[in-house]
C-alpha cells in the first residue's frame, strides 16, 4: 500500500511539474554523476546567478520527488501532512497566477535504482548537462547488474540533450570521455588533463596567516589564467566542482575573471570536506555526508598530504581516519572495504572503524593503530578523549552510519554544529 501511495504521489508531482515547465519554459542545467553532484550544482548556480535569475536544487533534492519540489519551489513535505498543503498552494499559484519564474534551473539528478533517471527525464530534460565523475565502482551498484549499468544510467541525461547543446564532462574520467563521443553534443571538459577546456594545474593546500585554510589551483581557459581558491574545504574534490562551474559559465560566454570573482565567496556544502576546528587544537575534515570507494580514496589522499603541522602554532600531530561503512556496494562490498582499508593504512596513523563492514578497514591495518566501534554513537562517546593537539582527523562514512555525530562530538565549539550535515529535526529524531 505504501509503494502504491508513493507511486501516486510521484506521478501527480511529475505531472504538475511538467505543467509548470511548459508554462514558464526555463533553461535547464542538469548535474549528474556518481561523485560530487551537490558541490557542483551549488558552484554552477553561483556562477550563473551573476547573469541570470537562477533557482537550484536545495540540499540533495535529486530524485523523482526532489526535482518536482525544486521546480515548485517548496521544501520537502515528507513527515508533515500540513506541508503538503503548501505544495498544493504553490502549484496552483504557479499555474494560475502571474509569477516571475526563474529563467534558469540548476537541477541535481541521481539514481538509486534502475529507471530513476528515466522517470526524472519524463518530467524535465536538460539544455546543458554536467557529468561529474563515473567511477570504477559507483555507489548504489548493489541495485544494478553491473557498474557499467550504473554509469550508463548516470550518463543517460546526455542522450536527452538537443544537438550541439553543451555537455560538460570531467576530462580526467575515462568513462565520461568515452561515453561523450557517442553524442552529438558540444563537449566542454574540465580537469587536470592537458586537453581540458577548463584546465586545472598546481592544485595545493591554501594557507592564510600560516594556517591551512582551504585549497588553491591555477585555472586556464585558452590563454587566460586565474587563481582559484576554495576556503574552508579540503581536497582536490573541492576544486573540481568549481572547474565544472567555470566550464558551464564558458558555455554561457561568461568571462573567466567574472566567474572567478563570483566563486571567491563559494563555500562547500555541509559534510563535503569542510574544515572545522576540533577539540584540543585539532583540525577536522568533515566529509560525513556520504561515502563511496572513489570518494573515500580521494579523502584519504587529502589526509595523507595534509600539511603537518597544519599551522605555525600547532604541534606535529597524528593523522586519524574515522571511516564508517560504505553501503550499497553489493557483491563489491568486501573487496572495496579491503582495498580502501589498505589505502587507509598508508594514509593514517590511526584508523577508527565505525560499523560492521568497516571492520575490514581495521583488519587491513599493519602500520597504523586500529580502533573499532559498533556505531557512530559509541565512537562519538570515546574519541574526544583520544584527540591530541595537532591531530588532523578525517571523518567519512555512508549516510546511514551518521558519522556527523562523531564530528559533532569532536568540535571545539559546540555552536559549530550548525555547519554539519543532517541537523534538521527530521534527521535528529532518527535513531
Overall shape: it is: globular
In CATH's first tier, which class of the largest domain applies?
Alpha Beta
Helix content: 25-40%
What gyration radius follows from the Cα positions, in whole Å?
21 Å
Can you tell me the number of structural domains?
Answer: 2
Number of helices: 15
Query: Structural class, please?
Result: alpha/beta
Structure report:
35% of the residues lie in helices and 21% in strands. It is α/β, with parallel strands linked by helices. The chain has two domains: 2-263, 3-Layer(aba) Sandwich (UDP-N-acetylmuramoyl-L-alanine:D-glutamate ligase); 274-428, Alpha-Beta Complex (Protein-Tyrosine Phosphatase, Chain A), CATH 3.90.190. A nine-stranded mixed beta sheet has the order 2-3-1-4-5-6-7-8-9, sandwiched between helices. Strands 10-11-15-12-13-14 form a six-stranded mixed beta sheet, with helices on both faces. Strand 12 (319-324), helix 11 and strand 13 (350-354) form a beta-alpha-beta unit. Helix 8 (240-251) packs across helix 9. It is globular, with a radius of gyration of 21 Å.
Concise synopsis of the structure shown:
This protein has 431 residues and is α/β, with parallel strands linked by helices.
Topology of this protein?
Blueprint: H1 2-24, E1 27-32, H2 37-48, E2 54-56, H3 66-72, H4 81-96, E3 104-108, H5 116-121, E4 128-131, H6 147-155, E5 166-170, H7 174-180, E6 186-191, E7 198-208, E8 211-221, E9 224-231, H8 240-251, H9 256-263, E10 274-278, E11 282-287, H10 293-305, E12 319-324, H11 333-347, E13 350-354, H12 359-363, E14 369-373, H13 376-382, E15 392-396, H14 404-410, H15 425-428
Parallel strand pairs: 1-3, 1-4, 2-3, 4-5, 5-6, 6-7, 11-15, 12-13, 12-15, 13-14
Antiparallel strand pairs: 7-8, 8-9, 10-11
